[in-house]
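Dear colleagues,

I hope this message finds you well. In preparation for our joint manuscript, I am sending the 5-3 exoribonuclease 1 (Gigaspora margarita) sequence together with its predicted structure, so that both groups work from identical material. I would be grateful if you could confirm receipt.
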Amino acid sequence: MGIQGFERWIKDRYSKNNKFVEHIKKGFIKENPDNFYIDMNGIIHGIINENLKTYNNDIIFNAICGYIDDLIFMIDPNKLIFIAIDGVAPRAKMNEQRKRRFKNANANNKFDRNSVTPGTKFMKDLSEYIKEFISNKIQNDDDWGTKKIIYSGHDVPGEGEYKILEYIRRSELDSLKHLIFGKDSDIILLGLLQYKKNIKVICTEQITSKTKEFEIKALPILREDLKEEFKKLWDTNSRPPFEFDIGSIIKDFVLLTFFVGNDFITGFQKFYIKYKGLDLSIHIYKEVLKDCDGYINDEGKLNLKTLEKIFAKLCIIEKYENNENYLELYKKIQKNSTEATKKNEAEFQKWKSNYYRDHHRESLIQSYIKGLQWIISYYNGTLKSCRWFYPGHRSPMISDLQNLNMSEINFDVEDYYKPFEHLMFVLPPISKDLLPKAFQNLMNDFRIEKFYPETTKKNYILPFIDDELLLSVLECEY
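The corresponding structure tokens are as follows:
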């Protein structure tokens, strides 16, 4: 899923000259890549949605493989085909997955959409079907037989896009041309961070068997656009007191996107892309960099001093009535415009206390900063803790992110959960039949039943699962 609204935002901001984004018709591609990667998540869901009313596994599996075949025939890569299905995700992603699966739960559907989860029988059957399809293509199709084929199934831990970028990251040849098919905004951000690699991303607005138009986003061009935009800061008398480095700029740009929220931590209160939250973050970043001693992302570690300077300016907007355009509001505040209406201080403090009613403020602040560091590790490929998660349903208020006197942020080395454990973390009670038979009644076990409410509030705020307790209960069953 990634960051809501990010793809449209990045196209609107950086494709003015139509160089970053290229529109193509099915069957027409100007340049064949060396390596072609397919993130299967969007394809699987797209084909299922198309066939939901007349659901049949054989039809679905055949249509999914037909889509793969059409893509590879159109792209015709020179060297490699890499097909990746989501495996077990890190715990930090599971809370979002759990929320989504509770939303998807519907007893009236012929097909349970939650079947598209690593470890279910559906995913095992689909994986076997795809492997057989690949084997047949290698034997009978010269376009496949002459290329290296890699299939990373649901039984291999990690999200599809993460496994793809990990492979690209390890590639020694920077000259290789990489093309990734996928809809998740994380692909763009992960790809941007590989700033020495030649990566493009191809996707379509809606995935169906009748797809006829695609978009190709050239990340090297986007990197040049970012370089041109931020290099200007060093061409003034008030330039930052450290050297310009495009790699560091890109790392900071990616980090700024975290403020509007992603799949791992909650974004700031109503700080959405559509309200210009990301635009404001970039604007303030440019303002404060001249007064900082370094980038936010300092060789993989958070520079808390730089971060505090950004938060100190961002938090100004919290005390004003929101006009659904944070960038314009900030500019009006800076000009002391009467159009910027300040909130009553007493009422604001009362609202703020209420905001934290279910959370310990200091603990939430510490966890949020730790979460930023965790995502940096995830994005740069140095993730060691697959079981850490952000233990809050909301972010701290920006105005509380000051005096961040935190010691060095470290994480325990923890492996991914097993597939059946993952299912217990993310599935709602209505989907219990997707579990292995030995576990299907465990959601009613008195020790853990509180984690699996039959009904939820409209905003799907769910209790966090105590993993030690859950794993101890599971251990008794296997």
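For the figure legend, we might mention the following. Residues 121-140 form the longest helix (20 residues). Residues 236-367 form one domain.

With kind regards,
E.M.
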